Amino acid sequence: MEVEAAKYFCQEKFVAAMPPRRKKPSPQVSVVIVNYNVRDFLLQAIASLQKALRGISSELVVADNASDDGSVEAVREHFPKVKIIANTQNLGFAKANNAALSQTRGTYLLLINPDTMVQEDTIRAMLDFFDEHPDAGMAGCKILNPDGSFQLACRRSFPTPSVALARMLQFSKIFPKSKMFGRYNLTYLSTEETYPVDAISGSFMMLRREVYEQVGGFDESFFMYGEDIDWCYRIRQAGWQIYYVHRTQIIHYKGESTRRSSVDEIRTFYRAMHLFVQKHFSSSLLFLALLRFAIASVSILASLGSFVRSIKIALIDFLMIDLSLLLAEYFWRGGIFLYPHFAIPIVFTFPALVIIAHLYAAGVYTYRRMSISRSIAAILIAYIVIAALVAFFKNFAFSRMMILLSCGMSIAFICGWRLLAHVFEKTSAGGSTGIFGKRTLIVGTDAKAIELLKKIRARVGDGYEAIGFISSTHKEIGRL
Cys-Cys with 26: which of 105, 198, 409, 459 at CB 3.0–4.6 Å? Predict the structure, then answer.
């Protein structure tokens, strides 16, 4: 018993003699970046942030939404002190930010996109601003596009009925300097002044920790888009001011993450806007109905964009076919429009429509957009059909030689203008966008690769033309 008592006494004395463990001081700034497949932009953003954070106690947290471009490995290699949250799936912007925010300790929180570059004075300027404005709960700085132009989304008004109506009717674009009509992006205000606003861009949002603890994080009902304006709305409702600060600026390469995502951002954007209005303006039934109509209309128009572009290509093909018919008639019969007057509209309409239909069936206007080989095959089949049909309609019949001549010239013209367009796109603006787009190979043959292919083919204006897959095994050849 005496031994045990002595042992207990010694332990107690030893514990009492130990100095109390110091609590690690909280950093002044916690930076959160949500990343998805923009490795090079992310590394560039972290490098610029580290320069801006010199002399400021800070922590940097990257929440990666299951990128497959080596983002996580690259950050660990080049910036080992950066904390990485490697999600196993794409959680979306709101949920990934909330997960990262819950692990921060900073007095100030900065949420910033990976496709941004900050100035060396940006963080310091924003901290000075908060010190000068105790009413400021959140603030955003001036945001520029890569070409130096001002990014309108960095200061906004809430989409109240009057603001949304001016936006829907395009009055905000027609009268940008009008206080009545230019409120959505505050285009009537100077970009070289600092003032309170309703909302700022989610690409750069700096706030006090006490605001985050009071209001909470993003509403995770929003997967992508709309969560930033909803957060701003809740912060304003809690009595805090939100400021646009002009004294410092960043560059934002807007949209890089969504371009690499399998998400249908058009549909996601309008779904988010509908969710925001339903959440905050549901009491105004007329406004809700009008906005739902506008959202549905714009969404349908956006979906029809690829169809309209395909129609333009089909119209050029139609003209090329008629040109080949005219030249074939001229070379073989010594003149043009030598058919009976009643037959001319049919002769120069029906064959072109038959060929256009075959080109469409071959996917030349959709998933195999502008394919030369498929164009040739479709034209040959279409002319066989035309030759069979004209045998039964003598009043509209071509000679066999005219059919051969026009077939050859149709192939030459239709394929020729595509090749010329391709060359022109390469020599102008780097060939990044246009009718053909960049010939693109997709690495992989799994479900993600198939989804990416569908997205590229659905969005014909993005400047990419998928021509095939790359697999690590020979057994995949010919499967897709």
Answer: 105
Place of tokens 């290699």: 77
Closest alpha carbon to 156 in 189, 118, 116, 192: 189
Return d(Cα 328, Cα 350) in angstroms, integer: 16
pLDDT tens figures, 278-329: 666 666 666 667 666 766 666 666 666 656 667 888 888 899 998 998 898 8
User: What pLDDT score was predicted for residue 257?
Assistant: 47
pLDDT value of residue 475: 46
**Tell me: the pLDDT tens digits for 392-422?**
766 656 677 888 888 999 999 988 888 887 7
| DSSP designation for 119 | -
Give the end-to-end CA distance of the chain in Å, rounded to a whole number. 81
Mean pLDDT in residue range 201-221: 92
Query: Is the distance from CB of 121 to CB of 248 less than 8 angstroms?
Result: yes
Q: Tokens 């030759």 correspond to what residue?
A: 387
Residues 439, 479: Cα–Cα separation, whole Å: 20
Count how many residues are written for the chain: 480
Rounded CA separation 104/17 (Å):
33
Q: What is the pTM of this model?
A: 0.60
Q: Which amino acid is residue 338, in one-letter code?
A: L
Amino acid 345 reads P
Mean pLDDT of the chain: 79
DSSP class per residue in 282-335: TT-HHHHHHHHHHHHHHHHHHHTHHHHHHHHHHHHHHHHHHHHHHHHHHHHHSS
274, two tokens: 């509908």
> What residues contact residue 142 under an 8 Å CB cut-off, 6+ apart?
150, 154, 191, 244, 245, 246, 248, 249, 250
Listed residue (373, 149, 106, 369) closest to 249, CA to CA: 149
**Cα–Cα distance between 94 and 114 in angstroms, integer?**
15
* pLDDT computed for residue 344 by the predictor: 79
Helix 285-303 to helix 265-280 angle, to the nearest 10 degrees?
Answer: 180
Nearest to 130 by CA among 109, 114, 113, 155: 109
CA 473, 476, 477, 480 torsion-angle sign? negative
Share of the chain above pLDDT 90, in %: 37
> How many CA atoms are closer than 13 Å to the CA of 5, on its beta-carbon side?
2
Query: Do 154 and 143 touch, CB atoms closer than 8 A?
Result: yes
Q: What are phi and psi of 150, to 5 degrees?
A: -80, 135
Residue type for 94, please?
A
Q: DSSP characters for 415-478?
A: HHHHHHHHHHHHHSGGG-SSSS-EEEEEE--SHHHHHHHHHHHH-GGGSEEEEEEE-SSGGGTT
